[in-house]
Amino acid sequence: MEKSFFIVIPRDFAFDLQSRESRVNPGSLFGFAQTIDGRYVCSSNCINDFPDEFALLGQNFDLSVITLEVEDFPQTPPIK
Amino acid sequence: MLMKASAVAYDTDAQTYINAVITAGGSLNTTQQNGIDRWFRDMKGQANGSYSTYNVFSRIMWAYLFTQGVSAARDGINAKSPGTYNFTDTGSPTYSSSNLTVAYNGSSQYSDTNHTPNGEFTTFANSDLTGIGVHRTDTNNDTNATMGEVGGGNTFIKTTATFEVMTLSGSAAMNQAQTRSVNRLWACSWASSSTINAYYNGANVKTSSITWGNTATRSVYLGAFHGASPGYGGANTIDFAYGVKGAWSDAEQQMMYNATKALKAAFGITWS
Q: Cα–Cα distance between B248 and B252 in angstroms, integer?
């Protein structure tokens, strides 16, 4: 299955930044997801849209980029 | 005798859109600007020797032409009315300036049209969302809707190579097995308060006699669907999306496909 790149982030960071607008890319809002095993992650693209925020985070938190598949996330209930 | 060159005058709405894209940092060469102008003229029913045109411009709510493949700031500009219903991104989806697309990962990314339709119990005549459409360039099969909203009058599109579901205003425009390629233009719209149609590359593929349902109540998402929380149906990549109001005929939907295919050609993009 197709994989995408994600950055693992702390829960507090995820919720603090949620829906914040990028200063370098207006119209781009921060968004994250939680994996089935409980990790909070965001697209690796987010580091480009929020460089200052990630630079600050990186001072006290080891950032890691991982690959995940759709199956690693909770399934959305089917709609009809 | 010297001939005096006359300046090219684009359609006023085309020029407004071109200016908005350039102001946002985009670039458009003459061929591309000519292509944009042609699309606007098509939407206003001006004669085109290649295909029939119809005046639908006033019935378009939003149309995203993806002329840059760079960002929401440039590609999210609503061609119908720049500044109104421009879309915003969540989760930093991936843009491609070579393919003029945006790719959503199906787990944390979507775009919000910021168009919240005008109420669950609005009549067909007064509804400001009676049709949606999206052009996919990927071939991934959806596990759930990858465009639309769920609230009041469910309005969404879900497509796979073996099954397709298009629901509009709480009524099924299509819900059946099929074997069509995913990477095409999918659309559904009401032709009247009692007829709903499904379209594939501009051609009517299903007509149903259904009494008008309810207008959607949440803003329409691209890349995911708008429920109580964002709902995902898998990764998907798009290069055009539109939302409309009023009654739409088969001929008008065919024109939307023809005109946008021609627009894409001006940008070096070939639609199937």
A: 6
